[in-house]
Specification:
346 residues; alpha/beta; Rossmann fold; 2 domains; 13 helices
């Protein structure tokens, strides 16, 4: 039997490897501010979804009429809308319908957040996302969809239901935590495979020069919770041990799936108790992960490999919200169809 590689470490992005810098526009109030709240937390606040726009800054700032509805621009330029988090159960198609039907949010709202962000001290990596309120008929929770984006745009976009719409525009940049680059380089020197699995808009070729020690093909952005979980499960087939380092609820199932789960508290935030329950280690500085790696490498046993009844799943899963479904191997959902190509990249 072929011997598997020894160790892989999967890092979430924001709050683990880098500190996010976010400029948020509250569409209802017309207020723009720097905020520590993530798109996930704001989506929970409105009971909606958080999507990323798969577009580079030069596409979004190309001088189109600022009064043009953002939805018209997205349809005209065929900008992919990537659903990375849903606080309740509704389909990616419902989320995309709301985004493409909203006429209130203008391209100028995006320009405004990006313009402010460009004056911040950040790396030249910028992504823009939207927090969307979706009205859907109640339905029971489903298994976590693996779709990372909604690939189809409806030919016609029906009117918004009462209460629906884009609630926040968020443009974000990043700054690497002190010691992060040294840690990544040291892990590479130790022949440890390193992966980045983030819900942010990070592209391998774009950010690899800053994440020294991580090959571009090991950097994955705009991932859903289930995408992260499936990545960890696949890596467990190739490596003797897999460490998952996460910091928020969208990392929960990936942490459950890993041999060793590490919870990062580098950024102060409210976190569900279940994250602490599933964590084998809790760190306040990403550099502490080096010691966990050293222990895993120095012991042939290390932390025992979790069986199919992992901590979180033994409790029947983590009821984050109805829309955060488990990473399973069951039947294919509607959201999964047509998305296998991207999933295979993981």
């Amino acid at each position: 039997m072929e011997r598997r590689n020894r160790l892989a470490v999967v890092f979430d992005g924001a709050g683990v490897i880098y500190e996010p810098v976010r400029i948020v526009k509250d569409i209802e109030r017309g207020e723009v501010r720097q905020s520590k709240l993530s798109g996930i937390h704001l989506a929970d606040k409105v009971g909606g979804a958080f999507v990323m726009l798969r577009a580079e800054i030069r596409e979004l700032m190309r001088g189109e009429e600022c009064l043009e509805p953002l939805s018209d621009f997205l349809k005209k330029k065929r900008v992919p809308i990537v659903v990375v988090y849903k606080s309740r159960h509704f389909s990616d198609e419902e989320v995309e319908r709301v985004v493409l039907s909203d006429k209130r949010v203008k391209l100028g709202d995006v320009h405004e957040t990006i313009s402010i962000l460009l004056n911040c001290d950040i790396l030249p990596v910028i992504g823009t996302g939207l927090v969307v309120s979706v009205v859907s008929h109640p339905s029971p929770p489903l298994s976590l969809s693996s779709s990372a984006s909604s690939s189809s745009s409806a030919a016609s976009t029906p009117a918004l239901k009462e209460g629906e719409g884009i609630k926040y525009v968020i443009s974000g940049g990043l700054n690497l935590f002190q010691g992060a680059v040294r840690l990544l380089e040291e892990l590479r020197r130790r022949d440890v495979a390193v992966f980045i699995a983030s819900g942010d808009r990070i592209e391998g070729e774009e950010v690899a020069p800053f994440f020294r020690g991580v090959p571009p093909e090991n950097i994955f952005g705009m991932l859903k919770p289930g995408d992260k979980c499936r990545l960890v499960k696949r890596l467990r087939q190739r490596y003797e041990k897999v460490i998952m380092v996460g910091d928020d609820k969208n990392d929960y199932y990936a942490m459950c799936a890993a041999d060793i789960a590490v919870l990062s508290l580098q950024i102060e935030a409210e976190r569900p108790k279940e994250l602490f329950d599933v964590a084998d280690f809790v760190v306040r500085d990403v550099q502490e992960v080096e010691g966990i790696v050293n222990n895993a490498l120095s012991s042939s046993d290390g932390v025992p490999k979790k069986d199919s009844g992992r901590k979180g799943e033994r409790r029947g899963g983590f009821a984050l919200r109805d829309g955060i479904e488990k990473c399973g191997s069951g039947g294919e959902s509607d959201d999964r169809r047509g998305e296998r190509e991207r999933e295979e990249q993981l």
